[in-house]
Specification:
Chain A is mainly alpha-helical. Helices cover 74% and strands 2% of the residues of chain A. Chain A has a domain of 200 residues. Chain B contains 18 helices and 22 strands. In chain B, β9, α6 and β10 form a beta-alpha-beta unit. The chains are: A mainly alpha, B alpha/beta, C mainly alpha.
């Protein structure tokens, strides 16, 4: 008989002394699950949007929305790709370089006659391969991910330069441009945004609903405990690097479609914003927690904020500064919230222990009583 | 002789648990005093109070006649108190010299006087019989050598009281002798040593006086020459607790696990034993005897150099924890928080972690419904009373945490379950629950390896008992076996008791 | 247990213990440097060229100065990704202001020229330190944020314009090309900083505190080392050196625009890592960072002379970092003594995180 189904011997289970427990309403569970971070992000988005649209009447115009959405595409893919790596407790500084190299290879292949979609597919495979290299070096050789991806970042960019030298490739075929900057069925809604949301959904599905995703969070939470519990740690860690590589390649495809130019240093300045978006999205820098919806919200917030600041007259660099400041505020705020939460958690824990003690006294006496009874009845 | 330090009526609690209840004693210069007691008796709390890591909420500390408050470790250090733990807290990248003088480097005109410090370090090391170049970085040293560096550190900062907290657990016999010589030398110099150890014959040999703690109180204090080891054991263990150990008889089946000549060089050697279905095989021994190392090698965490393992009749070469689990093994680690739980995850996630694979549906989805149902079943089984199901495990009490870890392994439905100190640091109620479950598991036919340092527990719960000493099997005994036999086998004092398998 | 080895004699330990693995590291670096230099000199006449050598050393000096500062931060188990931006900002501000300060005459100008970038660097570094020590931000994230802020400020402050060479005092412009006793002035300056910080890190408690913090932060706190203060101070010094690098930058390039120093942090970290500064903290030295700078730039120089694309430099940097880290990791693991119980200890990060989660 299965161990699990056997009825426990000895004393009766203690009646629950806490009144709430599992009879919670669906709404409360949902609200609590949503975590305050995402709600904070939503609030900020709303505030900034309101502020910006009062400052400029066409902030919410279809054209502006479309522009913002398109601008966020490349960054979006990069951020989504690097998020799982950070969730496992590692980091990948090479995502922008993988974008550059796979984009360059794709462009060069096309230039030499390859069908653009085939070239795109090859780019994706290359991105996966580059990510795989990262993963293998970090996991198999047990080297710090910061150092390794710092190195691979330079290496991949260097190779991109070697391939393209200082040249640029332009004038990509219309279908690609349509993909990168066109609207859905001729409307204003960008295809790129649709694809981005699609991939975000897939990634969210993987990370939040599947066993693989749980493994990611377990590894970020406590790698050794995960390993001792049978979670496939090495395999998972390598795979998230592959995912990052794939998403970087996707970003490259949309970069080419949107900007219609391939250069060896394309999107080099997007690494920091990508990591900013991830951290801003509530993903812990140490790993083990965070959500994809949070990252998406952060991306929206960043885009809206930058555009809004632009509308308010701030230059591009002032916007960048503000983003940096926002990051600082977000992290410090998050740390403060965590500290407060830990304090209340400790109080709960002490209450637990006290309760356990109080109960066991009654329990122990009753158990000794029942054992003696059983003994007397000739067990 | 005037005391150098005196504890008067010290009370301390952690949350609602009272760890020290009115402990008083005094220490004089040049004494070696032993402090013994079971796990949880309060020994480490005393050390923390003496070193200023925690503060008592009642009671006083008197240092050389004047009352002191050790608000932090530095104050305690300056008062001349130094502690050396099993794993010394040193700076691995820095040299021996630098470690010895950490915090009080000698300076000449503002700059560090390396040459002078090196010279003094050499002298100290020579006194401690450690002939190593003091410029060697500490990470190159073995544990025994690092301990000596810690002692040198204590001496150089003028420590008058040196606390040795279980120092011999990680040492070889030769290294223990070396340490004993050092202790004698320190004693001659007037340094007081507070020696905390589970190894009673060492305590007997080394100390002038012995203090016994039990349940946070001092229950005995006698000159060493006036006690015997059995008396010490009796004082340590105290109450009659047989009724609290709910072992039910189980049907013993075929051999499920057979280990022959298993060796991992440096950790354990030539270990052989057999485990049968439904049997609880205890593993007793002093800390450092190699039991955890053995468990971890069986579970695929650490490598194996030689030997054979047969599991359910088939040869078994554990490659990794994942592999071991798939073959039907389970391992409850000694340090549940660090090795057993992911603190950022909820109860259901932790409980089902080892069987996620089994719960997956289409596309690899891990359905919350299935997970929660399994969690509820398991929670009922272990009598987990932790309130809301989706609480993070870091918020649970120790007993509840252990129940979660245990549930994780119940879910695996293993053939062989290895338990490493399963009731360590757990309140009595949860302890009884956990032991009941273990007993039930045995009745269900699971073979159990039960590693424990608690004598009573291991004696009452197990059918047979393997005693390990310094990486070897010192004896295999059938229940019932008395504590004295276990202790003598564990510590190596020759005994005339027959070993019977 | 019979298996555990006897403690070897002091002679054996003296030799095998490698009196200072640290020193061996530097000796090894020097050896590699010499080998590479000699080989290059023999096979490439262009390498031997006086101008080439001087430029190489001058460039290396700039990297070395900033790498020394970065190494201080790295050795205390932190990281500073904003040094490039600090350098650029300090360069621009100093460059534009210096042309307007003719008040105190010659000496005054020199003083301002030297102090201003240092002060700017100190202030910017102070902000970094504050974020990490008090706002408890992980160093990567904090300096990532300040990197964007500082480079943004660069653009803001420059407002699209540049500092032109003619605006910079002649002595500063000529510093790059001037030689003292046949050796480039930059080399002397770099050497001076190396000496100063080698002294500080070896002979002053302040320096040893940083090593301790990097080697075992918990033990450092236990020993009552003021870790928060030291962290801030380390970042301030790193910022100061980055600022000084900005001064050298002005001399080197003459023109300073809003992109000055961009990407420089990677070169600096690569140089430090190649020079043996561990990313985990606790080991390495300013001399190592300087030697790493020279080695890194020398190999780049050789590749350039071999007509290998300038773009290979980046690749090289990347590969160099990975190889250096792997090499040092392998060596450390070889030498490390696994204590029997220590094997059951989790990695330091898990330990730290679990501790803070539960015990707070």
């Amino acid at each position: 008989m299965s161990i699990l189904l056997r009825r426990p011997t000895g004393r009766e289970p203690r009646p629950s002394t806490r009144h709430d427990d599992n009879a919670e309403s669906l709404l409360t569970t949902f609200l609590r699950r949503i975590m305050r971070w995402e709600i904070g992000l939503c609030l900020l988005i709303v505030i900034v949007t309101i502020g910006s649209s009062t400052a400029s009447s066409n902030f919410l115009s279809p054209f502006n929305l479309e522009t913002m959405a398109l601008n966020a595409t490349v960054l979006g893919f990069l951020a989504l790709g690097v998020a799982p790596v950070i969730m496992t407790g590692d980091i990948d500084l090479s995502v922008a370089s993988i974008l550059a190299l796979s984009g360059v290879v794709m462009a060069v292949l096309w230039q030499h006659g390859t069908n653009i979609w085939l070239a795109a597919l090859i780019a994706i495979v290359l991105g996966a391969a580059l990510g795989l290299v990262n993963g293998l070096v970090v996991v198999m050789f047990e080297l710090p991910s910061l150092a390794v991806t710092l190195g691979s970042m330079s290496t991949y960019t260097g190779i991109a330069f070697l391939v393209l030298q200082g040249n640029a490739i332009i004038n990509f075929p219309a279908p690609l441009v349509q993909l990168g900057s066109g609207g859905l069925f001729g409307s204003d809604f960008p295809i790129a945004t649709l694809v981005l949301l699609l991939f975000a959904s897939i990634l969210a599905f993987i990370l939040h609903l599947t066993g693989f995703g749980k493994a990611v969070f377990a590894i970020g939470g406590n790698r050794q405990a995960a390993r001792f519990s049978g979670v496939p740690v090495a395999r998972t860690r390598i795979l998230v690097y592959v995912i990052a590589g794939v998403f970087s390649a996707l970003a490259a495809i949309f970069y080419l479609g949107n900007f219609d130019t391939a250069q060896a240093n394309m999107a080099a300045d997007q690494l920091l914003p990508a990591i900013t978006a991830v951290i801003l999205g509530g993903v812990s820098a140490y790993g083990g927690s965070g959500t994809i919806p949070g990252v998406v919200l952060a991306l929206i917030l960043l885009q809206v904020l930058e555009t809004g600041l632009g509308v308010a007259g701030l230059s591009g660099q002032e916007q960048t500064i503000s983003v940096g400041v926002l990051l600082i505020i977000a992290i410090s705020g998050g740390a403060a919230i965590n500290a407060a939460r830990n304090r209340s958690r400790r109080r709960e824990q002490r209450a637990d222990i006290a309760r356990a003690d109080a109960e066991e006294v009654t329990q122990a006496t009753s158990s000794i009583g029942s054992e003696q009874q059983a003994h007397e009845q000739g067990q | 002789m005037a005391s150098i330090i005196e504890l008067q009526d010290i009370h301390h609690s952690y949350g609602a648990v009272e760890t020290l209840r009115g402990v008083s004693f005094s220490l004089s210069p040049g004494e070696v005093v032993g402090l013994v007691g079971e796990n949880g008796a309060g020994k480490s709390t005393i050390v923390k109070v003496l070193t200023g890591v925690v503060q008592p909420f009642k009671g006083t500390i008197v240092v050389q006649g004047s009352e002191r408050v050790f608000a932090n470790p530095r104050v305690a250090r300056e008062a001349g108190i130094a502690a050396m733990y099993q794993e010394p807290m040193l700076f691995p990248d820095l040299s021996i010299t630098e470690n010895i003088f950490a915090g009080h480097q000698q300076t000449r005109r503002g700059t560090i006087a390396w040459r002078q410090m090196d010279k003094e370090a050499r002298v100290l090391l020579a006194q401690l019989d450690l002939p190593i170049d003091p410029q060697t970085p500490v990470y190159q040293l073995r544990v025994a050598e690092r301990q000596l560096v810690e002692i040198a550190k204590a001496l150089s900062s003028g420590a008058r009281l040196l606390i040795l907290d279980e120092p011999t657990a990680v040492l070889s016999a030769r290294e223990v002798d070396a340490l004993y010589t050092i202790v004698r030398g320190l004693k001659a110099r007037g340094v007081t040593i507070l020696f905390i150890s589970h190894r009673l014959e060492e305590v007997y040999q080394w100390t002038d006086r012995v203090i016994v703690l039990r349940d946070g109180q001092k229950v005995a204090e006698k000159p060493t020459k006036d006690v015997t080891i059995p008396e010490l054991i009796r004082d340590m263990v105290g109450r009659e607790i047989a009724t609290l150990y709910p072992k039910q008889p189980a049907k013993i089946g075929d051999t499920i696990l057979e280990v022959k000549g298993l060796t991992h060089r440096g950790y354990f050697e030539d270990v052989s034993f057999a485990l049968r279905q439904g049997e609880i095989l205890g593993f007793a021994g002093l800390v450092g005897a190699g039991r955890t190392e053995l468990a971890q090698s069986l579970f695929g965490i650490d490598p194996i150099d030689s030997g054979q393992i047969t599991l359910a009749g088939y040869p078994f070469h554990p490659r990794s924890p994942r592999h071991a689990i798939s073959c039907g093994l389970a391992y409850l680690p000694e340090n549940r928080l660090v090795h057993g739980l992911v603190p950022t995850m909820t109860i259901p996630l932790n409980m089902t972690m080892s069987v996620w694979k089994r719960l997956l549906t289409l596309l690899g989805v891990l359905p919350t419904g299935r997970m929660n149902r399994l969690t509820d079943t398991l929670s009922r089984r272990v009598r987990l009373q932790a309130g809301r199901r989706d609480r993070l495990v870091s918020a649970l009490s120790g007993g509840n945490q252990q129940k979660v870890v245990l549930s994780k392994w119940l879910a695996v439905e293993p053939r062989v379950l290895i338990l490493d100190e399963p009731t360590h640091g757990i309140d009595v109620g949860a302890k009884a629950d956990i032991l009941t479950i273990i007993s039930d598991l045995a009745q269900a036919g699971v073979g159990i390896l039960f590693i424990s340092s608690e004598m009573e527990e291991v004696r009452s719960m197990c059918n047979r008992l393997v005693v390990m000493r310094e990486g070897h099997v010192a004896g295999i005994f059938a229940s019932p076996v008395d504590s004295k036999t276990i202790m003598t086998a564990a510590s190596g004092i020759p005994s005339t008791v027959e070993a019977s398998a | 247990m019979s298996k555990r080895p006897v403690m070897p004699s002091s002679l054996e330990r003296g030799v095998s213990g490698m009196a200072q693995f640290i020193r061996v590291r530097e000796v090894g670096l020097i050896a590699i440097l010499v080998i590479v230099s000699v080989m290059a000199a023999i096979t490439l006449p262009a390498f031997r060229n006086g101008v080439n050598v001087r430029e190489l050393l001058n460039n290396a000096a700039v990297v070395a100065v900033v790498a020394i500062g970065e190494s201080l931060v790295l050795m205390s188990r932190q990281i500073d990704l904003s040094v490039g931006a600090i350098l650029g900002l300090a360069a621009f501000i100093t460059g534009s202001l210096i042309s307007q300060v003719n008040v105190l005459g010659g000496v005054g100008v020199v003083l301002v020229a030297i102090l201003l970038p240092l002060v700017i660097g100190v202030v910017l570094g102070f902000v970094n330190g504050l974020l990490i020590s008090f706002a408890r931000m992980p160093a990567i994230i904090a300096t990532l944020a300040t990197l964007s802020i500082y480079s943004g400020l660069q653009v803001l402050v420059s407002g699209g314009s540049q500092v032109y060479a003619y605006q910079v005092p002649a002595w500063l412009n000529q510093l790059y090309t001037s030689t003292w006793l046949g050796v480039g002035s930059f080399v002397w300056i770099g050497a001076a900083w190396v000496l100063l910080f080698s002294f500080i890190m070896r002979m002053l408690r302040w320096g040893r505190d940083l090593y301790a913090m990097g080697s075992n932060p918990e033990a450092a706190r236990y020993m009552a080392i003021p870790t928060r203060r030291r962290t801030i101070e380390a970042f301030m010094v790193c910022g100061a050196l980055a600022g000084f690098g900005g001064l050298l930058y002005i001399s080197q390039y003459g023109n300073v625009d809003a992109t000055a120093g961009a990407g420089f942090e990677l070169t600096v970290i690569a140089a430090a890592v190649v020079g043996g500064v561990s990313l985990f903290g606790g080991s390495g030295s300013p001399l190592g960072a300087a030697l790493g700078s020279v080695l890194l730039l020398e190999i780049e120089n050789v590749l350039a002379l071999l007509k290998i694309s300038i773009f290979a430099q980046q690749t090289l940097q990347g590969v160099a970092i990975i190889l250096a880290v792997a090499l040092y990791a392998v060596l450390m693991r070889r030498l490390q003594q696994p204590a029997s119980r220590a094997r059951n200890q989790p990695d330091i990060d898990t330990q730290r995180r679990v501790k803070t989660e539960v015990q707070q």
